[in-house]
Amino acid sequence: MAEPRYRYLRVRVENDVLVMSVTPQELRSTQFDMVEGLREEMLAAADTTHAGKVVVDMSAVEQIGSASFRPLLSLRRKLHDCKGELLLCGLQPNVRDVFLVTRLIDNTGSQDAPFGAAADVAAAVAKLNG
Q1: Whole domain around residue 91: which residue ranges?
Q2: Whether the Cβ atoms of residue 104 and residue 114 lie closer than 8 Å to each other
Q3: Closest CA to 102 of 124, 69, 76
Q4: Is residue 1 part of a domain?
Q5: Is 91 exposed, middle or buried (0-12, 13-18, 19+ CB in 10 A)?
Q6: Domains identified in the chain, total number
Q7: In this structure, are residues 47 and 14 in contact, taking their beta carbons and an 8 Å threshold?
Q8: How would you classify the pairing of strands 9-14 and 17-22?
């Protein structure tokens, strides 16, 4: 069976954790088709791999708009429904600031924010396999 091809993601499994690397540099709210495509690809990758632990590597993303949270929130909901876990990593300073201001992550490591975050893929995978 051929591996699925993704337009907005690179996907691999590392130590039983699905790693989705977002490839576009900009995820702006005005780019509805791309944002929706990313959402569909994230959900499809999670379905295809039956992943219980997922890392979303955002290191290539330099700008993000609020509508771009939808793919991440949809993936979080899907994983939450099946008792899965999700961590973000590689947040560039500008992108990290947006996540902090919107309270989607927090600096204290509290479980109150919707997303947990790690510095990079290795740290995120280690944290999920803790």
Answers
A1: 9-129
A2: yes
A3: 69
A4: no
A5: buried
A6: 1
A7: no
A8: antiparallel
